[in-house]
Amino acid sequence: MKNQSVYLKALVKGDTNQILKIYEASFPNVKRFVFQNKGNQADAEDVFQKALMQLTVRYKKEKFEIKSSFEAYLFTVCKNLWRRKLNKSKNEVTIDGVIELKSEERDIAMSVLEQERWEFFQEKLELISDNCKEILKRFFKKIAYKDIAKELGYNDENVVRQRVFKCKSKLSQMIKEDIRFKELKEL
After folding, report:
1. What is the pLDDT of residues 60-103, one digit of tens each?
2. What mean pLDDT comes out for the span 127-149?
3. Is 36 in contact with 24 (CB distance < 8 Å)?
4. Which of 116, 112, 134 is nearest to 125 (CA)?
5. Fewest beta carbons less than 10 Å away: which of 104, 113, 121, 124?
6. What is the pTM of this model?
7. What is the spatial distance between Cα 39 and Cα 31, in angstroms, rounded to a whole number?
8. Tell me, what DSSP letter sits at residue 68?
């Protein structure tokens, strides 16, 4: 876990040697992910750069702690950025072939906000019971109710549906009761 603060400080300072180590350790996985999801080399490089910028901006703004490995955290940021780009390109409307370009700063701010929302959600997910965690993780992966029932030893899919409903309600309640929810929701 020591590498996290070393890497984050290196990004802020522009320490070329440490940044090269970040590239060597993390870029191949990001590149593979982007290639597997309709991207190319330029897309992978762009996403990786944006992720590093996002981390730098966020760390300058407020020192934060990464609870997983730096590489895993960076990979998650890259995945979220790439998925956001894919979703955004699906929804772009062109007028006479011209796409309105949004400011880079706004894009980075939105990415940081999305990452903070994701971390907030993950934090709350960790607070629910282990049983609910297992059910919801499978539910979020879109595993069929009958398969969840089989995997977790429930009698039938109706029991799983009820558990999913109760667990989602509990998670939703925990999220809404946290004062940070309103801040993260409003932007």
Report:
1. 877 777 877 888 889 988 998 898 888 776 554 444 444 444 55
2. 89
3. no
4. 134
5. 104
6. 0.57
7. 9
8. S
Distance between CA atoms of residues 167 and 117, nearest Å = 19
Each residue's pLDDT tens digit, 153-162: 998 888 888 9
Q: Which residues contact 142 (CB under 8 A, 6 or more apart)?
A: none
SS3 95: strand
The predicted pLDDT at position 115 comes to: 76
Report the C-alpha dihedral over residues 21, 26, 30, 32, rounded to 10 degrees: 100
Domains identified in the chain and CATH numbers: 1-126 (no CATH), 128-187 (1.10.10)
Q: Give SS3 for 98.
A: strand
Both tokens of 123, joined, read 């934090």
Work out the angle at residue 38's Cα, subtended by the Cα atoms of residues 37 and 39, and round it to the nearest 5 degrees: 100
